[in-house]
TrEMBL record:
It comes from the Bacteria. It comes from Adlercreutzia rubneri. Keywords: DNA-binding. The keyword RNA-binding does not apply. Residues 41-60 bind DNA. Residues 18-78 form the HTH tetR-type domain. This is TetR family transcriptional regulator. One of its GO terms (molecular function) is DNA binding. The keyword DNA-binding applies. It holds the Pfam family TetR_N.
Length: 205
């Protein structure tokens, strides 16, 4: 039987996909509270979710693809609801402050993922993904004349690693520095560390 928007079979299939992915996500949230990321295998995940491994591989080629989906979901939410100037690479301090605030407001599962290096290194990947989205809006006019693509990679690595380690240290130290103060410190550091390498902001029309 066909209905507007697809067949009944299609809708049932879609619901099964949603249920399976939700079960895997719930199982993952339980496991990450109990162990480290590198100890979570496909078997551990599917056993906890109550599904078989073949079903997992119908949805994800690898467990890293499952992690990528979680990470991309976080980034999509940030850029859709929290980032005010994604198309303005010159707003370096604003980007750093807003992302710090966003991560600080996440549930313990995300905090643990970002702060726990492993074979996947969720924190490194999430900061790299954030920076690459900003860079997609920039062009050669963003950096001052003479900055090569190789130099740009070094600059971006500096900013990324500084921001990640700042967040991790804030968490390790028990968050004794007020969140807004920590975000302001990071924003100032991010801007002033590379400001002299950036071209002047274009004048608005």
């Amino acid at each position: 039987m066909k209905r507007r928007g697809g067949t009944m079979a299609d809708k049932k299939s879609d619901l099964r996909v949603v249920r399976t992915r939700n079960a895997l996500r719930a199982a993952f949230e339980e496991l990450i509270a109990e162990t480290t990321l590198d100890k979570i295998t496909v078997k551990a995940l599917t056993d906890r979710a109550g599904i078989n491994r073949k079903t997992f591989y119908l949805h994800y080629e690898t467990i890293e693809a499952f992690y990528d989906e979680i990470m991309n979901g976080i980034m999509d939410e940030f850029f859709e609801y929290y980032e005010k100037t994604p198309d303005d690479p010159w707003d370096m301090d604003g980007h750093a402050r807003r992302f710090f605030r966003y991560l600080a407001a996440q549930p313990p599962m995300i905090e643990q993922l970002v702060c726990s290096p492993s074979f996947y290194d969720f924190g490194e990947r999430i900061y790299a993904t954030q920076m690459n989205r900003y860079r997609a809006f920039a062009d050669e006019l963003f950096w001052r004349e003479g900055i090569t693509s190789e130099s740009e990679e070094l600059i971006c690595a500096l900013i990324r690693n500084m921001a990640l380690e700042c967040y991790r240290q804030w968490v390790r130290a028990g968050k004794v520095v007020p969140m807004e103060e920590a975000a302001q410190i990071l924003g100032s550091m991010a801007l002033h560390s590379v400001e002299h390498l950036m071209s002047p902001r274009p004048e608005s029309d």
